[in-house]
Design goal:
By secondary structure, this protein is of the alpha/beta class. Helices cover 35% and strands 29% of the residues. The chain has two domains: 120 residues, NAD(P)-binding Rossmann-like Domain (Rossmann fold); 173 residues, 2-Layer Sandwich (Dihydrodipicolinate Reductase, domain 2). The longest helix is centred in the C-terminal third of the chain and has 19 residues. The chain is globular, with a radius of gyration of 20 Å. Pfam families: GFO_IDH_MocA, GFO_IDH_MocA_C3.
Length: 336
């Protein structure tokens, strides 16, 4: 067995316990050797449940563990900056949950801190590591569906009854744009290979949920008169889809961001009325994400998506939130 990247996990969030840690344990190049919580009891209980060797009652203790090479940060959004920077200063590489930060400025500080410390920083957008997205981009670039006219993405779910959820704390970076709107925004930027020029968003801010945006609908303007229209929400029927519309055809991904089975991973391509299904393998997106991150560190190669990408994604999210709050179109200055 070759060398593996040894992960420590800061926090016992659901996404870590139910998805990421099990995926890292199944991956080829990663292992989870430590977990920390704000209290030792929870850390020890979670470590025992998941078969993790060491448990710590504070994040600082984990960061001082010399046998931890990298940390995974699934903490609430407002803690991403603090613990990414502290992890970098402790010499740990960082895989941080999306959205990377609360705004573009925070993201830039995090990227700079990791660069100065000589560690790698990756934003945990697992969906884009699924091999089907490389195939989608290949089809788009081939010209098969003609000139790209528009992209539409939806990521919604209904969790409004859980009013104690961290997603409903405004000061913690709650809200649907941060939580799920970031996905179609990221996907459109990746697939189009361009940065947006403007954003206009209508949102529903809920008094019952600390006035965070529980639903948002937006138009993101890209160069060449191409638009991303998106919906995201935490108080709506579940949806998880992406469509790329071209002059001669379209690509429909019905399970765009969450895909476990081969059936969920497949997508359709329609060209001049003729539809075909593109089969994709049943893979664990989180495992692939971990392996690609580990390979970049262990083999000293570039990240699949450089950390600067997160700064640009946060720039668009900032514009979306400003547009929704001020009810106006926000122009984005090009800087890439």
């Amino acid at each position: 067995m070759g060398k593996k990247l040894r992960f420590g996990v800061l926090g016992c969030a659901n996404i870590a316990v139910k998805a990421v840690i099990p995926a890292l344990k199944k991956s080829e190049m990663c292992e989870v050797v430590a977990i920390a919580s704000r209290g030792i009891e929870k850390a020890e209980r979670t470590a025992a449940e998941l078969g993790i060797e060491r448990a710590y009652g504070s994040y600082e203790e984990l960061l001082s563990d010399p046998e931890v090479d990298a940390v995974y940060i699934p903490l609430p959004n407002h803690l991403h900056k603090e613990w990414t920077i502290k992890s970098a200063q402790a010499g740990k590489h960082v895989l941080c949950e999306k959205p990377l930060a609360l705004n573009q400025e925070e993201a830039a500080e995090m990227v700079q801190a990791c660069r100065e410390a000589g560690v790698k920083l990756a934003e945990a957008f697992m969906y884009r590591h699924h091999p089907r997205y490389a195939r989608v981009k290949e089809i788009m670039d081939s010209g098969e569906i003609g000139t790209i006219r528009a992209v539409h993405g939806s990521f919604t779910f209904n969790n409004a009854g859980d009013t104690d959820n961290v997603r409903y704390r405004a000061d913690w970076g709650g809200g649907s744009i941060y939580d799920v709107g970031c996905y179609p925004i990221s996907a459109a930027r990746f697939l189009l290979g361009q940065e947006p020029e403007a954003a206009t968003v209508q949102a529903f801010f809920s008094p019952e949920h600390d006035h965070v945006d529980m639903m948002a609908s937006g138009l993101i303007e890209f160069p060449n008169q191409v638009g991303l229209t998106f919906t995201c929400g935490m108080w709506a029927e579940f949806q998880n889809s992406l469509q790329v519309l071209g002059s001669e055809g379209r690509i429909d991904i019905s399970s765009a961001f969450i895909a476990g089975s081969a059936e969920e991973a497949s997508f359709t391509v329609t060209v001049k009325g003729e539809k075909r299904t593109e089969e994709s393998p049943a893979v664990n997106q989180y495992s692939i994400q971990g392996d690609l991150f580990a390979r970049s560190i262990l083999e000293d190669t570039p990240l699949r998506f450089e950390s600067e990408d997160a700064i640009f994604n946060m720039k668009v999210i900032d514009a979306c939130l400003t547009s929704a709050k001020e009810k106006q179109r926000i122009v984005l200055r090009q800087s890439r």
